[in-house]
Specification:
The protein is α/β, with parallel strands linked by helices and about 400 residues long. The protein is built from 16 helices and twelve strands. A hairpin with an 8-residue loop joins strand 6 and strand 7. It binds adenosine-5'-triphosphate (ATP) and magnesium ion (MG).
Amino acid sequence: MKQAELKTHPLRESQGADEDELLANQHTIIANQERIQSNQAKLDLLLANQEAILANQAKLDLRISQQEHTPASPEMIGVNPIFREIVRKARTVAGADATVLVCGETGTGKEVLARDIHARSARRDRPLVTVNCATLPAGLIESDLFGHEKGAFTGAFQRKLGRFEVADGSTIFLDEVGEVPLETQAKFLRILQHGEFERVGGTQTLKVDVRVIAATNQSLERLIAEQKFRSDLFYRLNVFPITLPPLRHRREDILLLVNHFARKYARRFGRDISSINQDSLRQLQEYDWPGNIRELEHVIERAVLIAEGDILDIELPSGNEESYRLALDARTPANVNFIGDADAHRFVTLEDNERHYIRQVLRHTRGRIAGSDGAAAILGLPPSTLRSRMKKLELN
Ligand SMILES: Nc1ncnc2c1ncn2[C@@H]1O[C@H](COP(=O)(O)OP(=O)(O)OP(=O)(O)O)[C@@H](O)[C@H]1O
Ligand SMILES: [Mg+2]
């Protein structure tokens, strides 16, 4: 009777159906929640992987660009005593993590020295990260150096790591540091002092361990006087300042460099350059080289390229590289005036030159070949190679 009553009671019947539906819905909700949670976990994993891929990609890009542009071991050619003393001092601080500020005119070898310091530091196994502060567009410099979060600005579709983050555990080379905009300098100071920064559009404070080598061809003191550079940042960078001399103050190195570049480009262009016109040598030694070693390198590169025989003939018409270039361009091959065999006495063979340079370097090192201040290190050669060159040149 009771059961029949229950069965036939319309309200009870509909209540039971509602409960069933409710229960079924609850199950669906729980199942969906579980699915959402598992998807969320997968998404987190995916994001973490993506981040790792991006970080690796950035490191890979830098390593590739390094291999393309950097010689395996930096060349520090020169016997000038002031230059050698600078190289010696730089190598002394290479091992310490001190900030180094390299000053000097354009083309004096600031980047070469920075690479040499990094290559001799404990961080040498990690790639040196180079930033040219002069070529970074003003609006992008912060994001380039410190990175940005997704959506930090229009076009920031993804989180990007900055160069300081990529350089974590390694060295960063801040070229043309005088060009860093005043607005960015405070952020710079903080990362130099505490290694701390935030990505653009981010709130999380990040910490990195980066050794800084900065370079400038401008006077930072003058920029401070013009209120374009923060003096506190200058003092922070100026812990170990190094000033590279212009080439006109180390003329004894001109021949050494000519020899080095003549060899380098003869090899690169598949030329067989055996000697150099003595008149050319005299001109090269008298010229003032406002563009320093880079300018000399370009002059030799072009001379090797246009050489029609095995003799390097260089003309620097008015002591000005631009007019030299124009004069070269204006020369037709028929007008190239190489001096014939009858004038051979006017030439010095590259071997004679080499013998002379090696002797000069050995005199400077008092005969020492190996070691960090030995002749081999100065000439950028392994000691065994230098010994076999000396044997070939009959040098004792
Ligand atoms: N001591 C050196 N021995 C051999 N080559 C050198 C030396 N110093 C510089 N060079 C060469 O001269 C050129 C200019 O050097 P680098 O780029 O280091 O100069 P820089 O001072 O950084 O110039 P800028 O101020 O214009 O950036 C490079 O091709 C480099 O290989
Ligand atoms: Mg440079």
